[in-house]
Amino acid sequence: MAKYKYTLALITDGRQILMLNRFKPPYPGLWNGIGGKVETGETPLAAGCREIMEETTITADEYTMAQLGVIDWYVNGEFRDGIYLFRALLHTPISHSRYPQWMREGILQPYRADWLTRSDNTGVVPDVQRIIPEILAADQLYVETNFEAERLTHFALLDPVQVMRDTDGNLL
User: Which of 20-34, 88-102, 119-133, 154-168 is predicted with the least confidence, judged by mean pLDDT?
Assistant: First the structure.
């Protein structure tokens, strides 16, 4: 059984990241990774793969998924929930002929990491913008964030050894 309610995956071909500009909350109009809620009885990994399929139509045989860790998410200093973090490495390059693509949840479009992480780029969800380099480079992550009035006020990388995993290394 999953400890937290949410997943977030960055889908990359090693050059670009496929981002979703959401139509509805949270963060409508901002570029975000792919994710959503963990359903009852679902593992975090299964939830991450299902969300990728639902939001992009990309199937699990088209990428290799890495289970990286979690974000502990606070709002006004109060723990809200956690978000399981994943990196989905595509087996083939992203084809620009497919994008932009309108999906049920929003518009899919690939971007380079250097554009997404620019400090003057206000069109990306703030904590996602800060964690992109870490998701692309790290094998394990543990992040703590705090938002006040939808503004990111705290972002910290913590010791990833503290993230709970089963004996096979799967996130709990």
Answer: 154-168
pTM given for the model: 0.94
Long-range contacts of 126-133 (CB under 8 A, 24+ apart): 126/151, 126/152, 127/71, 127/73, 127/152, 127/155, 128/8, 128/31, 128/32, 128/33, 130/155, 131/71, 131/85, 131/155, 132/10, 132/17
As a whole number of angstroms, the distance between CA 35 and CA 47 comes to 8
- d(CA 126, CA 143) in angstroms, rounded, equals 13
| DSSP-derived secondary structure letter, 95 | P
7 within 8 A of 99, measured Cβ to Cβ: no
Tens digits of residue pLDDT in 102-112: 999 999 999 99
